[in-house]
Design goal:
about 40% helix, Rossmann fold, about 450 residues, 5-stranded parallel β-sheet, elongated, single chain, Creatine Amidinohydrolase
Length: about 450
């Protein structure tokens, strides 16, 4: 989460920035604190700032941006930050854009405080320099300076206005609710350390896939495949993403044969020659998830079934190739849908891909349909599950009485493929394709051996 806090002097913006930063586990980057740190530690930039401030001058934007660049490169800022004190003008917005891009901020939180209430609040502090005249002057200067800035960010749809008057805890809760929205429903930006944990979870899922592929054969029961999965998860020091999901799912795998699209519960059913089976696995390593699925034919299968499986996998790779910084969410769905539609398959709409990280299902949803160039812009630090599901017949679905098993409404075959893909500092990587992450540009060769 990358936030900018804006508010008039005395609105408590700095206090709120620190409280929200602590709650979100991201750093509060204050321009004033940066200046003081560089001056006190005697850095080259600090010496320049000290000289300028002693002469009564204004610190040039290029110095501030250089400091920000160094601060944002620190490990604790990989997952996001709160900016406080910069930018304050439209020109500084352009300088920040040059550093993080126009899509670099998630929200601009504006603390609104009535002028008369602000005067009353600051006069109560009893400071010698807080006269009514100086307070009102600072307030009007703030309004004049920030109006162009707020106009820029308003056109980008980033402004969140917050009432800055009230008890400290209530004021803090407002931006937390409106930006955070509950950790299980937010778009999370991951750090290198967090991606490293997702790599471990993804490698466990890949190991499950390999073992289940080898074991799945005519006569093998779905419960036997479930036992294989549970053992691998334990042996890898992980826990299951699926077991007890929503308090009711009873297994570590979703095993979906033939007309079952997703969420099939492992049971005593024994695989038969000619079946197809979708295998979905998820694992958690130190709080971070990996999730992936594939569909396999059991023994000799019909050409119709083989074509469905191969086409759905092809759509998976097409979607994965769109997962890169600067692309849009709609690019993924459009690439998947183009392939499914070309072959006349029903493209399931009720169940879609998703963000992933500390939760198995995070924002954003990743539909298997969409318009190129539409939707949110993808950026470094995001992790997504690309998850096409194609039916030989119509796209429509139905759910069994168990509340989990999802089938094709017309009883036709369905195939399901999925990978966890992350936009890392080293480029897009697939975390669930093998023991090590696989760069997206090489994913087809790696996946097909």
């Amino acid at each position: 989460m990358r936030l900018l806090f804006v508010g008039p002097p005395g609105a408590g913006k700095g206090t709120q920035a620190q409280r929200v930063a602590d709650a979100l586990g991201i750093p509060h980057i204050s321009t004033g604190d940066m200046f003081r740190h560089h001056v006190s530690t005697g850095t080259e930039l600090g010496r320049k700032v000290d000289e300028i401030m002693r002469s009564g001058g204004y610190v040039p934007d290029e110095i501030t941006v250089s400091m920000l660049e160094g601060r944002m490169a620190m490990d604790d800022a990989e997952g996001g930050f709160i900016l406080d004190g910069f930018p304050r003008t439209a020109a500084q917005v352009e300088a920040l854009d040059g550093l993080i891009g126009e899509d670099g901020l998630d929200h601009v939180v504006v603390f609104n405080v009535d002028e008369d209430e602000l005067v009353e609040r600051l006069l109560a502090r009893g400071r010698a320099d807080d006269t009514e005249e100086t307070i009102r002057t600072r307030f009007h200067v703030y309004q004049d300076q920030t109006a162009p800035l707020l106009d820029v960010y308003g056109r980008r749809g980033l402004i969140l206005e917050v009432d800055g008057i009230g008890p400290v805890d209530e004021v803090t809760d407002n931006p937390l609710r409106r930006t955070h929205r509950g950790r299980d429903r937010m778009i999370t930006i991951k750090s290198r350390r967090e991606f490293a944990k997702m790599e471990k979870a993804g490698a466990t899922v890949a190991a499950i896939h390999e073992a289940v592929r080898e074991a799945a054969a005519p006569g093998v029961s779905l419960l036997e495949l479930e036992e294989i999965s549970a053992k691998i998860i334990e042996d890898h020091g992980c826990t299951s993403s699926f077991l007890n999901y929503h308090g009711t799912y009873p297994a570590t795998l979703c095993l979906s044969p033939n007309d079952v699209i997703v969420h099939g519960i492992p049971n005593e059913y024994r695989l038969e020659e000619g079946d197809i089976l979708s295998v979905d696995a998820g694992a958690i390593y130190q709080g971070f998830h990996g999730d992936a699925a594939f569909t396999i034919g059991i023994g000799d299968i019909t050409e119709e079934a083989r074509h469905l499986i191969e086409t759905t996998e092809e759509a998976l790779w097409a979607g994965i190739r769109q997962v890169r910084s600067g692309n849009r969410l709609g690019d993924i769905g459009a690439a998947v849908a183009e392939i499914g539609s070309a072959h006349g398959y029903g493209i399931v709409e009720e169940y879609v891909g998703h963000g992933i990280g500390r939760e198995m299902h995070e924002e954003p949803q990743v539909p298997n349909y969409g318009e190129p160039g539409s939707g949110m812009k993808l950026r470094k630090g995001m992790a997504l599950c690309i998850e096409p599901m194609f039916n030989i017949g119509k796209r429509h679905t139905k759910v069994d009485p168990d509340g989990w098993t999802v089938r094709t409404a017309d009883g036709t075959l369905s195939a399901h493929w999925e990978h966890t893909v992350a936009i890392t500092p080293d480029g897009p990587m697939i975390f669930t394709a093998g023991e090590k992450p696989v760069p997206v540009e090489f994913e087809e060769a790696a996946s097909r051996g």
